[in-house]
Amino acid sequence: GNDGAVWTFWGQVDARNIVTLRARRFASGKLDAATQLAESAGSDTFADVATDPAGRVWVTWQSMRRGQGDIFARWLDPKSGQWSKEIPVSKPEGGNWEPRLAFAGGNGAWVAFDSSRGGEFNLYLAHIGVDGGVKERPITDSPEYEARASLTPAKDGKGLWIAAERGRRLWGKPLRGHESDTGLNGMKRMLLGYFDFASGKFSELPVPAEGKPAPRPATAVNLPTLATDADGNLWLAWRYFFTNRWLIGVSKLDVATKAWSQPMEVPDSSFGQDRHCTLARRGDQMLLCWASDNRT
User: Fold this and answer.
1) Residue 234 is inside which H or E element, if any?
2) What is the Cα–Cα distance from 186 to 2, expressed in whole angstroms?
3) What is the percent of the chain with per-residue pLDDT over 90, rounded to a whole number?
4) Residue 111 burial class via C-beta count within 10 angstroms: exposed 0-12, middle 13-18, buried 19 and up
5) Distance set, CA 228 to CA 14, 108, 129, 260, 281 (Å)
6) What angle do CA 283, 287, 288 make, to 5 degrees?
7) pLDDT tens, 64-75?
């Protein structure tokens, strides 16, 4: 939070064997009691958290209370220390998954998520007002799989950069395994686009190597994550599969010239599974956090 406190959010199985969403605050050397933010008939987890310019701590998560995934959000008032009521973000249609938060263009929050409405995964973007009002819209509409988004505000505050996975049709239905052409990661690549607040339009930009850039030959890429640097240029990090392990690649897009840097491999980033990494800016530095098991 803006008060210097550190918040931790996690999913925890309760006595009913259902995952509940919990949070805990650490400040001035003191760890507060845990707060239960979501408890329903279905599991509540896969949270994303950030603090807005006004100091509100926002959390968005996926709940299975309907039997399929739905996206919810809450925010913490920095003055009263009270959490808002639950805000339903997605429409209760299909399965809605993997929400991600960003702030730009005034009060409230932006949440990107993917939904299986219509029989295929597409990307949706929602704006949530502090008053609980939600405006949700699709930003992709294709027969291909498009999911697991990341978003970050443009430097001028006039739009959002959004990256996501793009994959084969009928994803998750006739597929088996992970890495082969018939697996869950088969034919995966990345998409990148810009959502303009004024027009409400999402425009894609080409990603090098037909959406599969990598420092080494890669059979699959996934889990892109975005952040902008102090100059407003866009940094992209992602997982790519090489031989028997997942590695992390990083590249920078010069927003003015639309030129990409050569992809760099992150040292000690190998891992047996395709876990998220996190990009962030601190002053004029770019920071990356990831998990690794150092396999070779």
Assistant:
1) strand 234-242
2) 42
3) 85
4) buried
5) 38, 20, 24, 14, 7
6) 165
7) 999 999 999 999
Asked if 239 contacts 277 with a C-beta cutoff of 8 angstroms, the reply is: yes
Low-confidence ranges of the chain (pLDDT < 70): 1-2, 174-182
**C-alpha neighbours within 13 Å on the C-beta side of residue 249:** 28
State the DSSP string of 250-265. Answer: EEEEETTTTEEPPPEE
Instruction: Read off the amino acid at residue 65.
Output: R
CB 49 within 8 A of CB 6: no
Give the Cα separation of 276 and 68 in Å (integer): 23
Residue 177 has a pLDDT of 58
User: What's the gap between Cα 286 and its chain centre?
Assistant: 18
pLDDT tens column, 143-179: 999 999 999 999 999 999 999 999 988 777 765 555 5
Per-residue confidence (pLDDT) for residue 292, from 0 to 100: 94
Evaluated on CA atoms 277, 280, 282, 285, the torsion sign reads positive
Closest CA to 7 of 43, 44, 55: 55
What are φ and ψ of residue 243, in 5° steps? 65, -75
Give the closest residue to 51 by CA, choosing from 129, 112, 103: 103
Q: Classify strands 70-76 and 87-88 as parallel, antiparallel or unpaired.
A: antiparallel
For residue 60, the one-letter residue type is: T
